[in-house]
Amino acid sequence: MKKAIIFALILLMFPVCVTYAQDAENKGSEYKLGVNDLIDISIYQEPDLSKTARVSPDGSISFPLLGNLSVAGLTAKELESKITDLLAADYLVNPQVNVFIKEHGKVYVSGFAEKPGAYELKSGMTAMEALSLAGGVSDKGDEENIHLNRKQDGKDITIEINSVQAANDPDKDTVLLAGDELVIDELGTVSVLGQVKTPGRYPLKRGLTVVQAIALAGGATDLSAPNGTKVIRMENGKKKVFDIPLDSILKGGDKTKDIRLKKDDTVVVPESFF
After folding, report:
1. φ, ψ for residue 61, nearest 5 deg
2. How many domains is the chain partitioned into structurally?
3. Average model confidence (pLDDT) across the chain
4. CATH number of residue 217's parent domain
5. What is the pLDDT of residues 79-109, one digit of tens each?
6. Residue in 39, 63, 37 with CA at minimum distance from that of residue 52
7. Last residue of a domain, which of 103, 119, 142?
8. In the 3-class helix/strand/coil scheme, how is 3-51 assigned residue by residue?
9. pLDDT, tens digit, for every residue of 148-182?
10. Which residue of 72, 75, 260, 273 shows the fewest CB atoms closer than 10 Å?
11. Tens-digit pLDDT profile for residues 224-253
12. In angstroms, rounded to a whole number, what is the distance separating the alpha carbons of residues 243 and 84?
């Protein structure tokens, strides 16, 4: 009786196992070759033509008889078909080609990440997944300004990524290619000037607000006009000015007026003339 039950369970699980295996195979087959991938190419009964090759920075490999082959952007199956067709055209009758990816290329995370370094590229890996492998953006890193540097078709390309937006909207994420580098900028500094006790430049911490920045500068002096506080910001070459009713905020007013500061913002607390 027990054997019959076990056998029945195995039969029930079998389709699931097959589907899982097929899904895993399909996902693997979708991987597109990139720079630094190490691939093993074997030709049935042709050991002299079989070789292991690493994809060069220009996306190619050197192969016996065929010379340089452009392989970047192809799946393993597509490369098998390409080599099969080329060999069959001039050299072999019905060649049997097999391509196996022995080692994937790398992507790089540099700058202000918790764990900068090189990480193995997995099929379909996105910028957010690579950042996760690197421990995320450090406290000093600017999570809204990340540069994805890529070499493509002999050109240097930079894609700007806002990880805050990408975390909430997959459409704003980017699938990585081998050799891609994610560079995380430093948050930088802000200036607090005017009628504060210690005017100067201060490190920008994530989420720092006007009230917090003025507190870092020792607070407003007795000669200040706190409700006249302003934040001066440069965006796309244009100056923006935000009015901050500091005294009203501190007395329980509209907290939304206590805006988050950005790199190179200047907070100015004016002097009272009364």
Report:
1. -135, 160
2. 3
3. 87
4. 3.10.560.10
5. 999 999 999 999 999 999 999 999 888 899 9
6. 39
7. 103
8. HHHHHHHHHHHHHHHHHHHHHHHHHHHCCCCCCCCEEEEEECCCCCCCE
9. 999 877 788 999 999 989 998 989 999 998 889 99
10. 273
11. 999 999 999 998 899 999 999 999 999 987
12. 69
Q: Where residue 4 falls among pLDDT bands split at 50, 70, 90? A: low
d(CA 57, CA 104): 14
Q: 211 and 250: one domain? A: yes
Structural contact between residues 199 and 183, judged by C-beta atoms closer than 8 angstroms: no
Which structural domain, as residue segments, surrounds residue 56? 31-103
Q: Are 54 and 38 in contact (CB under 8 A)?
A: yes
**Cβ-based neighbour number of residue 197 at 10 Å:** 13
Count of CB atoms situated within 10 Å of the CB of 214: 24
115 and 79 fall within a common domain: no
Q: What is the mean pLDDT of residues 40-66?
A: 92
Domain end position, chosen among 154, 186, 218: 186
Q: Which helix (H) or strand (E) holds 98?
A: strand 97-103
Q: Which amino acid appears at position 237 of this protein?
A: G
Q: For the residues of 202-252, what is the DSSP string, one character each?
A: EEPPTT-BHHHHHHHTT-B-TTB-GGGEEEEEEETTEEEEEEE-HHHHHTT
Instruction: Return the SS3 of 266.
Output: strand
Domain presence at residue 257? yes
Q: Edge-to-edge strand order for the sheet containing 155-161?
A: 117-120, 106-111, 181-186, 141-152, 155-161
Single-letter amino acid code for the residue at 165:
Q
pTM exceeds cut of 0.70 = no
Amino acid at 266: T
